[in-house]
Structures are given as C-alpha cells and as structure tokens.
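quick one before i forget lol
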Amino acid sequence: MTASVTLDASASGYYVYGHLLSSTEALPELEPVRVREAVAHPDIEVRWVDGPDLFGLPESWFLTIPSTDNTPWLLCGNCSGGYLLRFPDLADFWVDRSGQRILCAPTATTPGSTVKHLLLDQVLPLVLNRRGHEALHATAVVTAHGTCAFVGPTGSGKSTLAASFALIGAQILSDDCLLIEEQPSGIVAFPGYPGARLWSDTVEALFDKQTHRTSVAHYTTKQRIVFDAGSRQFFNTPTLLSRIYILVPDSPSRPYNYSIPALITPLTQRDALIALIGSTFRLDITDREMIARQFYFLERVLARVPICGLMLPDSYATLPTVCTAILQDLRS
C-alpha cells in the first residue's frame, strides 16, 4: 500500500486490512507493527479530538442509515475538506477526501470501547472504499482446502459460522468486513483483525467460560471473542479467495434432517451480482466514478471466484453439518 501520512511520534502503529494505520489512542484489537515499522509513514492516520460539533454541519446529508427503531443511526455528508460521518449522540468522524486522515470526536458520555468499535467496524470499511479499495460485508475463514467468504446481512450468521469453523481448526481471516483485490493469481483477501463479534447467546452456546471476550459497545449485547494475533485461530496473511457463499434464509417448512448437498445451491450470475452489490461498502454514494469502478470490480470477482448460495439453518446443532458441507464443496 502507498504510504502518504507521516506517523505522529505519540501515536501507535497497527496493521489492518493490508494497511498501516497510526492512532493517537491505543487500539488493542489490532495487530501492532514491529518497532522499526512504527516510524514509517502510515496509510491512514487516526486522531482523537475534542467534540462533538467540531466540524460543522454539511448542507445536506447524502446518506442516512436508520437503526431498528427508524431513528438515524449513521448520517453521511460533505463538509469542509472531506466527509462527516455522524452517529447521533455517540460520535462524529471526519474523513478527508483521500481517505488518509480520520478525526474522531466522541461525545463526553460515549465509552471508549464504543468509539473504537464505531471506528474499526463502521467507519474504516467506508474509508477503505474511499481509498479506492473494495470491501465486502463478509466474514472469511481459511481452511485446509481453501479460503471462503460468507456474505449476508447483519444477523444472517456469518460470524457464528466462522466461529464454528475456528472451533474445528480453521482460522478466521476477517469478521464482517473483507477487503479484496484482483491480482494476477486471482482475487486476494486481506486479513482484518483477531477476533469475532457474536451475540451473547452464541458465545454461551459455542465457547467455554475461559474464552477471552470483551464487550463490543455499550449499546449492544454483542461480545467480541478475542484471538491472539499470533494464535492459530487468526490468519494474518493475504490469501487467495476460493469461494464466496451467499447466506440465504432457511425455509420454515424445511425438515430438521438437513441433507448436506441441499445446503449449497447454485446461483445465477444475476443473483450473485445483486448479492455482492448489496454487500459492498461505499462511502460517497454520489461518486459515479467509484460506483462504476465497483461494478467493474464485482464483475471480475464473478469471473474468477465461484459463488454459491448457502442455507444456514437456525440451529446451533446443525453447524457441524454445515461446516462439513462447505469443506466438501471446497475439496471439489
């Protein structure tokens, strides 16, 4: 990645999504860089500043993402020199137009863990898009038979499935955001950061009480299962993407005795493209050049990576069967 921002001497350096990132606040979730690299020029610089209302309001918001109660969850708009990303009553994030600098301005009452979650899991995927990269709302695992990604909306079971793979010896590459790029060898997927975000009932169902976990944010019951960066549960090297599985809803009339072949189904090129378009991060939805670039890239992904539908039953008991079906498909 091209370096462009001088690292602040008081900041710490980290690797995430193939980028060197510096931050004036510690980000223990990320993989730290080695000492000799901490003086390099980072790709993305993150600074905490006093807020909120530091950057002024844009003339209009070009994007509003609602929460479950239909109140605004995220507002995006143009402002002086860049973009303002506002999480009402929580924090403002200013991003410069190149995607090289992020300023975080939390409210006085927002816990630090919540601000870091918003930065890493909400803002940074959008910044990657602004920097000219493509990232999918996907979770990826590395198995003995190849790397596969699970694509689907929030709550579809991507992280649960990845965690079940980790329990049988696979490695998580990235959770909920997957940076991919085309190289001569194929479509390459980049590692995110160690861990996975799971609902509390999933954590209790899959992991023992000794598993290291932390709270994701104060407004959710989700927990972050923490993997050591050097552990066998996290894969920290870019790798070729072998398959993409689009998670499709289970049928209420489906019998409980699931057949392994029926779990994985073919998709038309049209359905696969629509699913990828709906699962791609984009910051400035008014940027026509970015949208054209993204469409072209997704067409290249379709040409180089097999994409299938995957039915994930709503039962923890079926997870071993689903993992077996995926491994058999990867072997084929």
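fyi The chain has two domains: 12-131, 135-331.
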